[in-house]
Amino acid sequence: MSPALTIRPYSEGALSQAAAKLRAGELVAFPTETVYGLGADATNADAVAGIYAAKQRPSFNPLISHFPDRDAAAKHAVFDDRADKLAETFWPGALTLVLPRQTDSDVCELVTAGLPSIAVRVPAHPMARQLLRAVGRPIAAPSANRSGRISPTTAGHVAHSLGNAIGMILDGGPCGVGLESTVIDLTTDRVVMLRPGGITREQVAEILGCDVVMAETDDTAPKSPGMLTSHYAPGLPVRLDATTANPAKYGNEILLAYGDCNTKGFDAVLWLSKSGDDREAAANLFAKLHEADQPRFDGIAIAPIPETGLGLAINDRMKRAAAPRTPHPSP
Ligand code: TXA
Ligand code: MG
């Protein structure tokens, strides 16, 4: 599927077209002050799966949700005093906060990668803010480049990298910062920098009046989830590439099924995608893993999923779910 690409500079019409596309579940690249983002409705798992398909990312790391202001973000994330101080000082701007997720947030689990936390940011770019306001929903947006390529700071970079995979780019000229936002984790008592970026460690430390620990160098600090082998690991053991049931060996398993796999003999079956559609399976992945993770089963069996398209990222995540457990950072 390669929709014809439209690149539109700022106008009321361009903004309302972009907002309508996002609300309809399509992808739109838009400028922020850091880099161009590849946006999708964060409450629509199928749209978010489209981000991974377009970027050809080989793994599902959690994505940042973007909001027009702090109060919109607070519907989805729980702000403590530290979060409020940082938001007051640096928002709108190049700072992302990882906070506990509100229990009634409708941001889909593919955005948060099944975690109980959520990364939120209020960008400063006027076009981004106007767009976010017009959409009225959280927008998940990683940088608008193919995986492994340099971050896009002009509409031309986006077109070059993703032009045949997305339908629309809002052109806001070159990005001012040119470096992704700083990611600060506030889900523990400590203040941990998960990703350095536009706002410095010293700036954050000065506002909070405490140390900021670097995740990359401090072994006791929580790491960015992509770096944890078994981040979101279910409680039950996970068996990959399960082609047949074997209760004598594995007990009563629930099968996460895909395409024309063999479902015979399993205790229960949950479909990732009946038609063998990798995008549907990606959209379902974390929700189904959670649903399967019930103590009445002895294990979760995963049907074989072809290593093509989003299958790569799905299998990467399943391998992490099946990996020997590393302790989670304490909440
Ligand atoms: O400047 C930016 O931040 C750009 C523009 C488009 O806003 N966006 C961006 O988004 O870089 P993304 O989704 O690629 O950044 C994700 C970063 C990763 O380092 C990821 O590990 C971290 O945020 N992250 C997201 N959710 C998290 C969570 N729940 N816990 C810990 N880290 C999280
Ligand atoms: Mg990126």
Automatic annotation (TrEMBL):
The keyword Transmembrane does not apply. It catalyses: L-threonine + hydrogencarbonate + ATP = L-threonylcarbamoyladenylate + diphosphate + H2O. Residues 12-199 form the YrdC-like domain. Transmembrane segments: none annotated. Keywords: ATP-binding, Cytoplasm, Nucleotide-binding, Nucleotidyltransferase, Transferase, tRNA processing. Its EC number is 2.7.7.87. It is found in: Cytoplasm. SUPFAM superfamilies: YrdC/RibB. InterPro entries: DHBP_synth_RibB-like_a/b_dom, Sua5-like_dom, Sua5/YwlC_C, Sua5_C, T(6)A37_SUA5, TC-AMP_synthase_SUA5. It comes from the Bacteria. Coiled coil: none annotated. The keyword NAD does not apply. Belongs to the SUA5 family. NCBIfam families: L-threonylcarbamoyladenylate synthase (TIGR00057). Required for the formation of a threonylcarbamoyl group on adenosine at position 37 (t(6)A37) in tRNAs that read codons beginning with adenine. This is Threonylcarbamoyl-AMP synthase. It comes from Thalassospira povalilytica.
